């Protein structure tokens, strides 16, 4: 008889004469070395990255999207026996799910709502994992990359938008200034005495020179 210690974060599958016997839980166990084989499954949470793949949006624009999938094993026996490569099946399921998500959105919608790509992604992946002993924790779009020409066009669009905002604010400031001058001119026209009062105020300021133009209609006697 042989002994084996199973750690808290793992499970050991015991096969005797090629047949599955049981899952060894954390702790110390005995087994027949000559007739048995132990396979180890890590039960801790894992992360699988699906690198950027070029995908077509609903309106035919190509974008490059990568996906990060967090998952863990819930059934070690199914994980090892239901598929020759359960993690590979998960990888393919994530690829298909993000492809379908991008294909259902227009390019403008993808740019405006990047988080929308992740919505429903986990459910779509989970639907492909039935019987594999895997629990999907999360599936999130990690990176969204645009082709070089689209990146330049987007940058130019943003710059043009910011220039337009600056020009609009400048025009508003000029319009406000003109309205102020027009109101002042109308007020002086309606009340000429205000101009004299303003002149007196200006003359009272230190260093101010006031030039008075004589009234041509005035003739000294």
UniProtKB/TrEMBL annotation:
SMART domains: PHB. The lineage of its organism: Bacteria, Bacillati, Actinomycetota, Actinomycetes, Micromonosporales. Coiled coil: none annotated. It comes from the Bacteria. Signal peptide: none annotated. Belongs to the band 7/mec-2 family. It comes from Phytohabitans kaempferiae. InterPro entries: Band-7_stomatin-like, Band_7, Band_7/SPFH_dom_sf, Stomatin_HflK_fam. This is Slipin family protein. CDD domains: SPFH_eoslipins_u2. Residues 1-158 form the Band domain. Pfam families: Band_7.
């Amino acid at each position: 008889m042989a002994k084996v210690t199973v750690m808290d974060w793992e499970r050991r599958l015991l096969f005797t004469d090629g047949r599955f016997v049981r899952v060894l839980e954390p702790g110390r166990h005995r087994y027949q070395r000559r007739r048995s084989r132990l396979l180890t499954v890590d039960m801790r949470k894992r992360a699988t990255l699906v690198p950027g793949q070029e995908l077509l949006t609903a309106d035919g624009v190509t974008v490059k999207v990568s996906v990060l999938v967090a998952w863990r094993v819930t059934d070690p026996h199914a994980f090892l026996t239901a598929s020759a490569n359960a993690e590979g099946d998960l990888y393919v399921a994530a690829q298909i799910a993000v492809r379908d998500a991008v294909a259902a959105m227009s390019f403008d919608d993808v740019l405006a709502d990047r988080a929308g790509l992740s919505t429903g992604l986990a459910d779509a992946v989970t639907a492909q994992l039935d019987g594999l002993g895997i629990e999907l924790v999360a599936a999130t779009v990690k990176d969204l990359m645009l082709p070089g020409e689209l990146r330049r066009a987007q940058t130019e669009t943003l710059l043009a938008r910011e220039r337009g905002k600056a020009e609009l604010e400048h025009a508003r400031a000029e319009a406000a200034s003109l309205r102020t001058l027009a109101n002042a001119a109308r007020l002086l026209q309606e009340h000429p005495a205000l101009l004299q009062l303003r002149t007196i105020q200006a003359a009272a300021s230190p260093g101010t020179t006031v030039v008075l133009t004589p009234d041509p209609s005035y003739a000294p006697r």
